[in-house]
Amino acid sequence: MPRLGVIGWPVAHSRSPSMFEAAFAACGMDDWSYQRLPLPPELFDETVRALGAGGFVGANVTIPHKRAALAIADRAGDAARAIGAANTLTFGADGTIEAQNTDAPGLIAALGRLTGMPAHPSALVLGAGGSARAVVWGLLNAGAATVSVWNRTPARATRLARELGARAVSSPVQAEVLVNCTSVGLQRSASDAEALNQLGLTADQVGGYAYVVDLVYRGGPTRPTPLLAAARRHDVTTVDGLEVLVAQGALSFEYWTGKPAPLEAMRRGAGLQKHAR
Ligand code: NAP
Fold this sequence. Notes:
- The chain is of the alpha/beta class.
- It is built from twelve helices and twelve strands.
- It is globular.
């Protein structure tokens, strides 16, 4: 019975098990299973090295283990090496471990499915943590015309931009695509205006972007983050964080199984309904 899982600490909140179980059902892969693997950092290396022998074909990796996932691998894809982090591990029959990063190509795939998305958009990325690094690399690698990076702690934006070839900005600038890679919106704020203020934005400024992506998710399109709620009020095309989760999961599925991912089943499994905007 081929096994898969998601490694994190904590990982109880993860939507990946229901998303992958929906994929297995849609593809008739009745003997496959996917489980949560809660793993504190001090147990990461020894546990991950034992997973292959335990019947695991692969594992997704989330906070705080993405750097460790790259470090433990015998081989890594270009994106994982350039970003310095991996979210997908594959365990070979010979005991070797391969690392990939599907966060960056997943976001690009989700953007590519939007109607009218320019081939070389200008982009503003909010944040300078792990996911911002993947998003900035992904946008540049996909041919974005410009990628600006704003962060609450400016020195981190400057460093990230210098390392990846983007441009750090001291306040949010207008662009065609806005991607929130901060954790603002995860917790409830006093008000939506307060949450936007933490991102250096007003609701009216959000209306100036053509596409707004929020990596943070709260439970799908019916429970938007303050950023996505403001964007929708201005009729801006939005991408919910769950769509990005599905997109990266679909690429992991394809690595492990060699089959095309059943996207609609995975979207339903993750808790997304069909949603036009
Ligand atoms: P991280 O490495 O911890 O980075 C957090 C970022 O948020 C930093 O830039 C930090 O700024 C900023 N931040 C935190 N609190 C803030 C506040 N009150 N005001 C302004 N900025 C604030 O986290 P990460 O791994 O990049 O993840 C960021 C978010 O993306 C998380 O909510 C995560 O769940 C989500 N995510 C979603 C997906 C998906 O598939 N949908 C994938 C990856 C991540 P400072 O540098 O100033 O601290």
